[in-house]
Amino acid sequence: MKPSLSAVLIVKNEQQNLARCLHSLSGQVDEIVIVDTGSQDGTIAVARQFTERIYEYAWHQDFSAARNYGLSRASGDWILSLDADETLDSSQGGLDALLAADSGLDAYFLPLYNQNPATRESTVHQVLRLFRNTPEYRFQGSIHEQIIIQDPKRVGLAVHPIIRHHAAGERERNRKRGRNLALLRRQLGTDPVNPFLQYYLGLEWLGLNQPARALPLLEDACRAMAEDQIIFRTPALHYYITALKAVGRVDEALALCLAETERYPNYADLFFHGGLLLEAGGEYQIAMDWFEEAVRSGPPPPFFFHTQGCASFLALFHIGYCQEQLGKRKQAIRSYREALNNHSDAFFVIYPLFLAVLNELGAEPARDYFLRNGDLRDGQRGAILAELFFEAGHPGIAARCLEDPEIRRHVQPAQTVHWLLFSGQPGAALAELNQLTHRENPPEPLLEERVGALLLTANYSAAKRDALLLWRLPGSRIQAIAYLNLIHWVTHCRLGCRPEAASQPVIIKTLVELVENCLKARAAEKLVTASPYEGLIVHTLNVLARLSFRGPVALDAYFRQKAELWRKLCQFRTGMKGDLTGVRHFGELVCDRQG
After folding, report:
1. Please, what are the domains in the chain?
2. In this structure, are residues 418 and 439 in contact, taking their beta carbons and an 8 Å threshold?
């Protein structure tokens, strides 16, 4: 007979998270038990959509007491313990197989995946969340509660399913950290040398960006934890190294990595940490050796805390970066390619790979390279590459990428129009706009693109009409003034109005961006005619020169910035040493555009 399974959760004000969590349990559990500790939002109403087993429990600053109360209300043979901000991912394997195995085990560790919203770092560690419904398995500790294992031989390690943690917003995270700090301090007062409490308290301080306060706690925790407590000692090491780095004690962090690799010679995360420290110090060759050792080590044993990618795509990415700094661009391209092939969703690798390939091969051969490697047949990667080609001054290639329907599906309509408009195809851009918009009330980004397209096709009356529509939108009023002045100059050779000083920076920025895009269009591949763009550039420069002294100053700054960027790109192409801040800024700019 199949054993029954109860999911048990304690909740408080989890209206935003609870439905997502409970949906993930569909078909996986026989009953859901909810213990509410004082919700004042719609948590109870959400819970009622999934279960009638809802209990109220007075909060006594003790998580274990609340969880154990929930366990006492569960009727299943087995219990799955979850939090409302978690989901159960059964896509690769569910709970049925574990429970039907009749392995003689009483409990299982499940992998918990967590992504840091600030760094986008994804980590995985094992948590004891699935266990038989017996009095032996009960939580202990008022905060960061754990089940103490009596007989390790009766506890197994599962690969699937996995638990995914979904981070809250920064404000909510900080609120919970404040609550946790108070509970941990109180508990640590009665047990001041408990390494687990020190670890968790250090973690909270680190999360609040207080590494100096976290450091002694994490140091003491690492020193006190025994070898058989690896499930806690390895994350403590990770955050201890992070805290040392954050307070500037880089040499100590590197020495710690070196010492701990003697203890854990196949722990890729330590080699990766060491590589990052050396890379930051400009020791690229040695750093590369450490990253290569991380790849050779492979994923660590299951109970080790692990940052995803340390033994694969992240290490390969940093190997490529180090190779670039050493002037080995062809090798760097191979490393970046291997990183992307290893993890197809590692989109951040595309940016340095693009720059390296573009500078090594040129624009059209670069397009052929990405086509040959399948990147321009993948919708998401193709959309990123198309944007990169556009930003690098090759709008024609960007527009040609739109011929692939998968890529087009991943490109915003306004961006599609933008690429067509400034690749020498204003007529095609207008045709696209006519399919996308209703003339009476088009979306704001498309309306601005349509003003540009009408200007480039010399339809000035329609351009003025649309600029006035743009003016009626409060968020676009200043941009509309820029276009209205430009239209007035084109048709009457004078400004329509002299805007207030406070509006001038936004107007100047709008017009300078128009010049920049028209310059891109003049260099576009297979450009039908450059004259509309050349004419618009001249008109726009005239408006900028007559608006105020700020216009010529902004233009001068723009062209100086472009000249400096090209100088640095030339250094990058020829392998000369130099500050590559401009190249990095280019990648950051496109990252921001991709959102």
Report:
1. 5-167 (3.90.550.10), 171-321 (1.25.40.10)
2. no
Residues with Cβ within 8 Å of 524's Cβ and at least 6 positions away in sequence, in order, are 394, 395, 396, 399, 422, 423, 424
Beta bridge partners, 157, equal 109
Cis status of the peptide bond prior to 161, with omega within 30 of 0: yes
Q: Is 464 exposed, middle or buried (0-12, 13-18, 19+ CB in 10 A)?
A: buried
Strand pairing partners for 10?
A: 35
For the chain, state the CA radius of gyration. Answer: 29
- Measured CA to CA, the distance from residue 446 to residue 437 in angstroms comes to 8
Run means of pLDDT, 10 residues per run, the chain, 595 residues = 93 96 96 97 97 96 96 97 97 88 88 83 93 95 89 92 92 89 91 94 94 97 93 96 97 97 96 97 97 97 94 97 96 97 92 95 96 95 95 92 95 92 91 75 80 94 94 91 95 90 91 90 61 90 89 83 67 46 42 39
DSSP structure string for 331-398: HHHHHHHHHHHH-TT-GGGHHHHHHHHHHHH-HHHHHHHHHHTTGGGSHHHHHHHHHHHHHTT-HHHH
What number of residues does the chain have? 595
Q: At 167, phi and psi to the nearest 5? A: -65, 140
Q: Where would I find the H helices in 208-267?
A: 211-224, 230-246, 250-263
